[in-house]
Amino acid sequence: MFPVDTKLYVKPYFWVPQEGMKRRVDRDRVPYDAWVSQGLIEATEGDVIDYDVIRKRINQLAETYRIKEIAVDRWNATQISTQLTGDGFEMVGFGQGFASMSGPMRELERRLLARDIHHGGNAALRWMAANVSATMDAAGNTKPDKAKSSGRIDGIVATIMAIGRYQAAEQPRTIQHIDQLLSFV
């Protein structure tokens, strides 16, 4: 997430297991293979996501961007969180419930309507946006939900988490050039 003046710019990174990708393309009717060719997602060897590849990519990105912090879903991310902490990154747990997600989700909606958030036309992120809906609790808090879709929503959840961390900054600051800061989720 890059704040520039009053706008937010999202630079998403996604991964898919190489093994069985063709099966996923046919089953999900999603052009994962084309997105890999276009550089919108990275394929990792094997039939599951290789978190060492993700860790390596984050460390490579740190050579170009000043990564302020990495927001991580507290559920089932212990190993990569520990490794990235050891690499010198600040890891911040981010809950997936109404309390954590509602404010940033409202901010995402506000920015979408105001056209104050940009993702460079990333087709994979756009597809994920089409899969997400909102669920609401009795108090009117919202969080992303994919109950009505079989498609992935991870990129939207990560965007909401990045917005949440941006909002949590004591004094959100802007930058003049997009290559100065990267909050990675």
Give an overview of the whole structure.
The protein is an alpha/beta fold and 185 residues long. 42% of the residues lie in helices and 19% in strands. The chain has seven helices and ten strands. The protein has helices spanning 21-28, 32-37, 51-64, 78-86, 98-114, 123-131, 154-168; strands at residues 2-4, 7-9, 15-17, 42-44, 67-73, 91-94, 117-118, 133-136, 142-145, 182-184. The strands form four sheets. The protein has a three-stranded mixed beta sheet. A three-stranded parallel beta sheet has the order 6-5-10, sandwiched between helices. The protein has a two-stranded parallel ribbon with strand order 3-4. Strand 8 and strand 9 form a beta hairpin. Helix 5 crosses helix 7 (154-168).
Low-confidence stretches: none
What is the general shape?
globular
Into which percent range does the helicity of residues fall? 40-55%
Ends distance? 9 Å
Characterize the biggest β-sheet. 3 strands, mixed
Radius of gyration: 16 Å
Strand coverage percent: 15-25%
Q: What structural category arises from helix and sheet content?
A: alpha/beta
Concise structural overview:
With 185 residues, the chain is an alpha/beta fold. The chain has helices spanning 21-28, 32-37, 51-64, 78-86, 98-114, 123-131, 154-168, and strands spanning 2-4, 7-9, 15-17, 42-44, 67-73, 91-94, 117-118, 133-136, 142-145, 182-184. The strands form 4 sheets. A 3-stranded mixed sheet has the order 1-2-7.
